[in-house]
Specification:
By secondary structure, the chain is mainly alpha-helical. The chain is built from twelve helices and no strands. The relative contact order is 0.15.
Length: 269
């Protein structure tokens, strides 16, 4: 589990709940089941109307995925450079057969993109061909990733709208009862506004932050894929290990770059 994400969600709720408790001696007034049904039910209904069921369900999975660590965000780009440089030495010494031996089942599970690109190098495609294939693969992956994030962002826009809808329903009911019991106007108005409160909470603590985090994680993955693609292209072109090091080190912070003379022994271990 991602401790930072969980703590962030808890902190967001703690701020809201703390403010409510500090401001009133009747915090239970902020609990209204019909309002929750209107906001959450309406948002979910709009989601399934707007998207195919597969994409809609993917949006819910993405919310829970933000509670888990993202392997690409925690991965070291320096290690990626070191691995490709080590592969360059293997190709230099043993040819493409040596690289083929590096594409293990565990690599295919941990990093399918890198394993697929290495297979292309082993097959004998040119650097330009590999770049074209991998760029198409990245574009397709980015398109797939954007659908779930787009669905989450739509939920973030819809939930306040359904909050306003619930408020209008509450106002209509309140105005209809004004003649019979004017004293009930205040409490009825408070209940009417609760739906807007729920809509904003769902949008600003759940849906929009989750969509933003998913997009940020996708960008991190795409950046790593670009580094790997550049390295694989250079492997296919049989560039020297030092040239590959210098070229793909441009993706890495200057203070964290991989250097053969300093890090090669560590990399081999």
């Amino acid at each position: 589990m991602s401790l930072s994400s969980i703590l962030s969600y808890l902190f967001g709720f703690a701020v809201v709940i703390g403010a409510i408790v500090a401001a009133t001696d009747r915090p239970e007034a902020f609990i209204d089941i019909p309002s929750i049904i209107i906001v959450l039910g309406g948002t979910i209904a709009a989601l399934f109307i707007s998207f195919e069921p597969k994409t809609a369900l993917e949006a819910f999975k993405l919310i829970f995925s933000t509670l888990k660590p993202h392997k690409d965000s925690s991965a070291s780009l320096k290690e990626e450079v070191g691995r490709i440089v080590r592969w360059a030495y293997i190709v230099q010494k043993n040819g493409l057969q040596g690289l083929e031996n590096e594409v293990t089942d565990s690599l295919r599970q941990e990093d399918p993109f890198l394993a697929y690109g290495a297979d292309l190098v082993v097959t004998g495609y040119t650097g330009a061909e590999i770049k074209q294939i991998l760029e198409s693969m990245m574009d397709a992956q980015a398109e797939r990733d954007s659908k779930g994030g787009g669905a989450l962002m739509k939920m973030g826009g819809d939930s306040p709208a359904f909050g306003m809808l619930g408020t209008l329903i509450g106002l209509v009911i309140m105005l209809g009862n004004m003649g019979s019991d004017p004293a009930a106007i205040g409490p009825s108005m408070a209940v009417a506004l609760i739906t807007t409160f729920y809509g904003i909470i769902l949008a600003r603590i759940f849906f929009i932050p989750a969509a933003t985090k998913v997009a940020a994680r996708n960008n991190v993955s795409m950046f790593k894929y670009n580094l790997q693609m550049e390295g694989l292209v250079l492997l296919a072109e049989r560039k020297s290990p030092r040239y590959i090091q210098d070229k793909i080190n441009s993706f890495v912070d200057v203070n964290e770059q991989f250097l053969i003379d300093r890090d090669m022994n560590t990399s081999n271990n």
